[in-house]
C-alpha cells in the first residue's frame, strides 16, 4: 500500500514543462478534477444510472400498484366481514328477542299448567273428601240400621210368643185376602 501512495506522491513533484501532466495543487485542481470526473460519470454512467433508476421506479410503481390491489381486496374483505358481522349481530339479537319471548311464553304456559294441575288436585281432594264423607255416613247408617234391626228382632223375639205370632200371621193373611178381592 505504501508503494501505491508513494507513486502518487512522487507524481505530484513532477515539473510541468509544457506537456501534459497532473497538477497536484489541491485548491486549483479540485474543482477541475471534480468537474471532469462528474462529466465522465454523467457521460458514461447516464445510461446505466438511468436504467437503474427506471428499474427502481418500475419496481416501486409495481409495489405501489400491488399494494393498492391488496388494499382494495382487504377493504372489500373488511366490508364483507363487517356485513357478515352485522348480519350475525342482527340474527343474534333476533334469537335473543325470540329466546326471551319463548322463555316468557314457556313461563306463562308453566304457570297456567301449574294452576290447572292445582285446580284438578283441589277437585280430586274435594271429591275424595265427599266420597269418604258419604262412605262414612253410609257406614254409620248401616251400623245404626243393623243395631236397630237387632234391637227390634231382640224385642220381637222376647215379646212374641206362639199365640201372638199366630194372630199376627192370621191378621196379615186376612189383609192379603182383602187386597186380592179388591184387585179382582
Automatic annotation (TrEMBL):
List, alphabetically, the Pfam families matched: ATP-synt_B
GO biological process assignments = proton motive force-driven ATP synthesis
The residue stretches assigned to a coiled coil in this entry are 64-98
Q: Name the InterPro entries on file.
A: ATP_synth_b/b'su_bac/chlpt
Q: What is this entry's stated membrane topology?
A: Single-pass membrane protein
Origin: domain of life: Eukaryota
Keywords from UniProt, A to Z, are: ATP synthesis, CF(0), Coiled coil, Hydrogen ion transport, Ion transport, Membrane, Plastid, Transmembrane, Transmembrane helix, Transport
Q: What one GO molecular function would you report for this record?
A: proton transmembrane transporter activity
Example GO CC term: the record gives: proton-transporting ATP synthase complex
Q: Which PANTHER family match?
A: ATP SYNTHASE SUBUNIT B, CHLOROPLASTIC (PTHR34264:SF3)
Q: Which family does it belong to?
A: Belongs to the ATPase B chain family.
**What does the protein in this record do?**
F(1)F(0) ATP synthase produces ATP from ADP in the presence of a proton or sodium gradient. F-type ATPases consist of two structural domains, F(1) containing the extramembraneous catalytic core and F(0) containing the membrane proton channel, linked together by a central stalk and a peripheral stalk. During catalysis, ATP synthesis in the catalytic domain of F(1) is coupled via a rotary mechanism of the central stalk subunits to proton translocation.
Protein name according to UniProt: ATP synthase CF0 subunit I
Q: Which organism is it from?
A: Frankenia laevis
Source taxonomy: Eukaryota, Viridiplantae, Streptophyta, Embryophyta, Tracheophyta
Q: Which gene encodes it?
A: atpF
